[in-house]
Amino acid sequence: MATLEAWYMDDSPEDQRLPHKLNPNQPVSLEDLQKIGVFYWKLNADIYENDPELQKIRDEMGYSYMDIITIRKDKLPNYEEKLKMFFEEHLHLDDEVRYILEGTAYFDVRDKDDRWIRIAMTKGDLITLPAGIYHRFTLDENNYTKAMRLFVGEPVWKAYNRPADDFEIRQNYLHSLRSAQA
């Protein structure tokens, strides 16, 4: 079975690239992530260009657009500015889908009680964050990741920084959380 490491975060102001685990650590299971709409697959990133499993996921989910981003100081224009922007708490009107091809990174998502959960992403991890969930992204101390970005239709890059609670997609997401608990 695929494993993904996730945990509740501390509120330390230290470097965002550190793990920020509570002491003692409070792990978060895949099942708990699914309850907030976060889904995960472990794939073979070495064959991403011709991976039938990736193609099956793309077909089933309707991910028709794909590109690859390399996040490293010498590869990403305006690197420092982009990292700050990625780490601002925000939401999107569409699902966010990322597949780590090389390197490592973190996605932080808010749970139903507004607590931060940190998800450690490594090579081969594919994750979907639902539209309307507050989240952010950062590199870890390795300062490098190469990721595939997947979209249904044309890509939409617009992020809406918190607060964005009045957006219909945010209200729909919160409603889905309440419905799942009922």
Automatic annotation (TrEMBL):
Q: Give the EC number(s) under which this enzyme is classified.
A: 1.13.11.53, 1.13.11.54
Which pathway does it operate in? Answer: Amino-acid biosynthesis; L-methionine biosynthesis via salvage pathway; L-methionine from S-methyl-5-thio-alpha-D-ribose 1-phosphate: step 5/6
Record's keyword annotation contains Membrane: yes
Q: Name one GO molecular function term.
A: iron ion binding
Q: Look up the record and name the cofactor or cofactors this protein needs.
A: Ni(2+); Fe(2+)
Q: Which reaction does it catalyse?
A: 1,2-dihydroxy-5-(methylsulfanyl)pent-1-en-3-one + O2 = 4-methylsulfanyl-2-oxobutanoate + formate + 2 H(+); 1,2-dihydroxy-5-(methylsulfanyl)pent-1-en-3-one + O2 = 3-(methylsulfanyl)propanoate + CO + formate + 2 H(+)
Which biological process annotations from GO are given for this protein? L-methionine salvage from methylthioadenosine
What's the family?
Answer: Belongs to the acireductone dioxygenase (ARD) family.
This protein's name: Acireductone dioxygenase
Organism equals: Chanos chanos (Milkfish)
Organism lineage reads as: Eukaryota, Metazoa, Chordata, Craniata, Vertebrata
The encoding gene is adi1
